[in-house]
Amino acid sequence: MNLIRPRDRSFAAPAIGLLCAAMAGGASLLFPGCSVYSTFPPDSPSQFVDPYFPPMPDVMAKALTFAHGRLAANAPFIWNLPAGAQYAVWEKVAQELPTGAVPMTSVDQDVFSVRQVRISGGQAQVDIVHRASGVWALVTVSLKKMGPLQMFEADYLQSWTIPVEAPSPNMPSKPIVPGTIESAVAAGPASDPALPAGK
Q1: Rounded to two decimals, what is the model's pTM?
Q2: Hey, where are the domains in the chain?
Q3: Beta strands 153-163; 112-120: pairing state
Q4: What is the pLDDT of residue 72?
Q5: What are the CA-CA distances from residue 5 to residues 2, 19, 62, 92 (Å)?
Q6: Cα separation values, 146 from 33, 55, 67, Å
Q7: In whole angstroms, what is the distance from residue 174 CA to residue 171 CA?
């Protein structure tokens, strides 16, 4: 899939906790006492968060779009995700970004790079690294949703004056799925039973 594309448009009882984890975000408004706090990258090795599942990709895309629009609307939109996000997550985020947004490929690019996502109930925050006046700095985009069936929407942006390290490109290579044309090419014709050696 081409990642340069236009937009397609509190702990409770164990059973409640599992339900909350499966419905992070709106569930806290549907089930009293159910408030899920999740971060990516996780705050600790023991915390497992898969950024592929909603609302993580949507939250990252909306935060990136909001930050770029507020801080560099006339500059190229180059974006980056945290290390550890699988290729499928990059695909999902790319689907939600505006036309012309491209993933980071070089350390010398002016990029909007997601550092961490934090989601708790109907509130979310996304830390984004970008370069301002030649210095890499941190901004935090806050998002919220008005109800359990609503999508997250960016609310405001907070800029911080503490310098941070420059980001590096984190997009992984597109995975090769067994049984596809890509896997046959990678393995070579001699190992593909449909393409006998010497033919």
Answers
A1: 0.74
A2: 38-187
A3: unpaired
A4: 96
A5: 7, 34, 16, 11
A6: 18, 15, 21
A7: 9
> 117: part of which helix (H) or strand (E)?
strand 112-120
In this structure, are residues 144 and 63 in contact, taking their beta carbons and an 8 Å threshold? Answer: no
Residue environment code for 183-195, b if the CB has 16+ CB neighbours within 10 A, otherwise e:
ebeeeeeeeeeee
pLDDT at 3: 55
Cα–Cα distance for residue pair 120/122, rounded to 1 Å: 6
Which sign does the torsion angle of CA 93, 175, 104, 122 carry? positive
For the segment(s) 38-187, the CATH number from 3.40.1190.20, 3.30.70.590, 3.10.450.630, 2.60.260.20 is 3.10.450.630
**Mean pLDDT of each 10-residue bin along the chain, 199 residues long:** 42 34 38 65 85 96 98 97 96 96 96 97 96 94 91 96 93 74 48 41
Cα dist. 157→29, 56, 79, 102, 130 in Å? 25, 18, 17, 22, 13
Q: What angle (nearest 5°) sits at the alpha carbon of residue 16, between those of residues 10 and 20? A: 65
The pair of three-digit structure tokens given for residue 130, joined into one six-digit string: 């970008």
Strands 153-163 and 135-144: what pairing?
antiparallel
